[in-house]
């Protein structure tokens, strides 16, 4: 294990934390950056496991709200419906993720051109959705109709394709279902917790046998830096999208995707 590898893990961890909760595809960023840095992880486990650092950041910042939900869950109807909504939104991607795990990791994760194309395509879609002039029907992430939670969950399945963005797919699904921009982002936060934790557990289960002790410092470095960066993003994101929307992130996707394609053509 070289110092360069640890530095690469730290850089990728920071990128993961900065991009996980904004609709630009953290997976695309760390796969493309890892490609150009020459960073290779065992079985692509690093790219999945460091997402747990971003999940821990969310759990830390939302601890008291989550605890309040746990306390109220046995008796409060609105809390029960919200938890049911999260479960409904989580299940489609969980099922497809288990069924297509090998294809996603071994084919889609290894196709940089596809990632760049999806970044660009998703950027234009996000730009279109963000600039639509529609009066929102729902402004409370904890009180969407169950049908809206299901639609968001189905949109999240698109994020199986690297470059699509899990948060981007769920936010677009929410906005097209009639939510406002802030509640769309906030529900994406809540849905990220079971989705990313589930992906972590399943991927670790599938690849535990190929990991070695040398992988642990690399993964641990990425995990810590992802946590720190994610805390900074989560603290600022909701206020930002409430005021500015998602246009900046749409243009960023298009720029990164275009630069990635140029880099692949010139450098391979």
Features:
268 residues, globular, mainly alpha
Characterization of this structure:
By secondary structure, the chain is mainly alpha-helical. It has one domain (3-267). It has helices spanning 3-19, 26-37, 45-49, 51-61, 63-72, 77-99, 101-106, 112-130, 146-156, 166-176, 181-207, 215-244, 247-267. α1 (3-19) runs parallel beside α12 (215-244), α4 (51-61) packs across α11 (181-207) and α4 (51-61) crosses α12. The longest helix is centred in the last third of the chain and has 30 residues, at 215-244. It is globular and about 50 Å long. 43% of the residues are buried. Catalyzes the dephosphorylation of undecaprenyl diphosphate (UPP). Confers resistance to bacitracin.
Number of strand elements? 0
Proportion in helices: over 70%
Shape: globular
Series of secondary-structure elements, N-terminal to C-terminal: HHHHHHHHHHHHH
Low-pLDDT segments: none
Radius of gyration: 18 Å
Number of helices: 13
Protein name: Undecaprenyl-diphosphatase
Catalytic activity: di-trans,octa-cis-undecaprenyl diphosphate + H2O = di-trans,octa-cis-undecaprenyl phosphate + phosphate + H(+)
GO molecular function: undecaprenyl-diphosphatase activity
Organism: Aquamicrobium aerolatum DSM 21857
